[in-house]
Write a structure and sequence with these properties.
alpha/beta, Rossmann fold, Glycerate kinase, domain 2, 2 domains, six-stranded mixed beta sheet, 12 helices
Length: 381
């Protein structure tokens, strides 16, 4: 029996490959001689770099000191695969997790550090850059990122503006003549699973601003700032970004990457699975095991397990998901290629107890699954 274990992380508890190793233990309780391949997967957010670098088989990590979202120096890591493709998670440099709750301020936060990561990758002659843009602390429309690459944002008196959300409404002129010329020679692919426009009722500020610390009055300022930003971009650069789906992702970084880097947006899980060539791994397997910390009705919207299942069904392979626990609507995944879902949690317990016991619970869930498989296919080895 050949088993492919393709797990997303159990957020805040276990990383992808840690979960996969635990699942393998459960498999081997029943089938000690099974051929097992383990890969980490992600949907464009946390763990994307590790998934792609690990899945490529010949990648490396680069550590860089950059400006964090509030301007403080921070260490950020990105990956390079196949010698010339960089894999960046913007949260490494500009993520909400880098800002304490009392410091959160999207008016002051900047995506400058993300631009520094891009700049470093360009300096290493990367010709393709994949960027996951989940988990941002910023609402600057990618202004900071573009400034790090050489774009200039000037006020009515010709002074260069500080690149943050609070400066958006002060921009009068955008100059791109000093941008790194390598940007125009590089392919940018953005992992983005939201379709929010740049501003308005479903835009970056209104929908995502509160979770970044924006108060009601801040949201209005930021939303008006992004609207003004879109107007200046249209006037100065001839690009109409306002209503483009995904422009509002990561506080408008989606817009910034499309405007200043010519980026293409795509579903995060598809980018990851294509880059690690998962279909070749699926074809070599008899059974596919996937999963994440919580499987519920939201899983069908671009999450990793359903992404894996869609690829597996192209080859008629059975797909089973192991979840930390199942929420409302978990049964919807059966319409998207997953044959069965097993919850690791089988008894009443506190969240603290579940987290502490999660390795054993996941291993036992995998063992239960393969005991069922052995019962219905006793000749499998």
């Amino acid at each position: 029996m050949r088993v492919l274990i393709a797990m997303d992380s159990f957020k805040g508890t276990l990383r992808s490959l840690e979960v996969a190793a635990i699942v393998e233990k459960g498999v081997r309780r029943v089938y000690p001689l099974a051929g097992v391949e383990k890969i980490a997967i992600a949907d464009g957010g946390e763990g994307t770099t590790a998934s792609i670098v690990g899945g490529s088989g010949r990648g490396e990590y680069i550590d860089v000191t950059v400006s964090g979202p509030m301007g403080h120096p921070t260490r950020a890591r990105y990956g390079i695969i196949h010698n010339n493709t960089a894999v960046i998670e913007m949260a490494e440099a500009s993520g909400l997790h880098l800002v304490s709750e009392y410091q959160q301020n999207p008016l002051a936060a900047s995506s400058y550090g993300t631009g520094q990561l891009i700049q470093d990758a360009l300096g290493r002659e990367c010709k393709k850059i994949i960027i996951g843009i989940g988990g941002s602390a910023t609402n600057d429309g990618g202004m900071g990122m573009a400034a790090a690459l050489g774009a200039e944002f000037l006020d009515s008196e010709g002074n260069r503006l500080e690149a943050n959300g609070g400066a958006l409404d002060k921009i009068v002129v955008i100059k791109t003549t000093k941008m790194n010329p390598a940007v125009g020679k590089t392919e940018f692919l953005v992992a983005c699973d939201v379709a929010n426009p740049l501003y308005g009722k479903t835009g970056a500020s209104v929908v995502f601003g509160p979770q970044k610390g924006a108060k009601p009055q801040d949201i209005e300022l930021l939303d008006n700032g992004l609207k003004h930003y879109a107007e200046i971009i249209k006037t100065n650069l001839g690009i109409d970004i306002a209503d483009v789906p995904g422009a509002g992702a990561a506080g408008g970084l989606g817009a910034g990457l499309m405007v200043f880097c010519g980026a293409t947006m795509a579903k995060g899980i598809d980018i990851v699975l294509d880059t690690i060539n998962i279909e070749e791994k699926i074809k070599a397997a008899d059974i596919i095991i996937t999963g994440e910390g919580r499987v519920d009705g939201q899983t069908i919207y671009g999450k990793a397990p359903v992404g894996v299942a869609a690829r597996a069904k192209k080859f008629g392979k059975p797909v089973f998901a192991i979840a930390g626990f199942c929420g409302d609507g978990a049964n919807l995944v059966y319409q998207h290629g997953i044959d069965a879902v097993l919850s690791a949690v089988t008894r009443p317990a506190s969240l603290e107890e579940i987290i502490a016991d999660s390795p054993l619970l996941i291993e036992e869930a995998a063992e239960r699954l393969f005991r069922i498989i052995r019962a219905v296919a006793p000749c499998a080895k």
